[in-house]
Amino acid sequence: MTIPGLERSSLPVRAAAASNADLAVVAFESASVAFGRRTIWSEANFKITGGEFVGLIGPNGTGKTTLLRVLLGQVPLAAGRVQVLGRPPGRGNPAIGYVPQRRSLAADLAVRGYDLVLLGLVGHRWGFGPASAAERHAVDEALEAVGASAYADQPVGLLSGGEQQRLLIAQALLTNPKLLLLDEPLASLDLKSQHEIVHLVEAIRTERQMAVILVAHDLNPLLEMLDGIVFILNGRVVAGTLDEVVRSDLLSQLYETAVHVHVTSDGHRFVVGA
């Protein structure tokens, strides 16, 4: 399958990330994934460099989460090659921060927000035990980075979806990663919270010059922030710029329904269904 204008093998680097332009944080080369005899996706050929903010889009069931799990060292390739910061993926890589798909937390969950974040450092220990001064300092810094210090002592179950998402992002920042993976962090959030989370991730990306891959269904909250887009269409992984991907014809093909891209008089784009 050939998609005009999408033959490039790397995503563009924004000016703010120019100092990291030579470092491929993520590099896929002719990569494919299969479960048994079923190929999930193939022909992944793209690079993401330091400081880039990339959206990963596509319908459910196309293998977006699987792509993240490849980077986490949880799913092996059937063919090809992938590297993260110049090395093959491996489990427990502290250079990667990961926010999985969020599930609603029970309203009666009494765990404090602080302790939820702390689990990112001590959760692997048998019996937990007290946190060290360095670990407590790391949690305090992460909470401050996401603007969650004010409610860190509140029970997680009583917090809003946006507040819970901030805590999960804080947990992912504990090891000062170079790559942040977020799997549908905007799901089930209201428009205000979506806007706040996207701008939070952008601020963190800018400050720390980390690469970000964010899985999303709705492109609209992201369009002003993204450097490029990766999508999975007919089992093929494709990467391109916003100009190449945010097109009515391509998005309609991707989502198998009529999608229209509109451009306002001041140049802003937004995507709507038929």
Description:
There is one protein chain. A 6-stranded mixed sheet has the order 5-6-7-3-8-9, with helices on both faces. The chain has a 3-stranded antiparallel sheet with strand order 2-1-4, with helices on one face. A two-stranded antiparallel sheet has the order 10-11. It is an alpha/beta fold. It has 7 helices and 11 strands.
Overall structural class, as computed from helix and strand content, comes to: alpha/beta
Number of alpha- plus pi-helical segments: 7
Across the major sheet, the strand order is 5-6-7-3-8-9
Query: What's the overall average pLDDT, rounded?
Result: 88
- The percentage helix is 25-40%
SSE succession: EEEHEEHHHEHEEEHHEE
Strand composition percent: 25-35%
**Main sheet, how many strands, which sense, barrel?**
6 strands, mixed
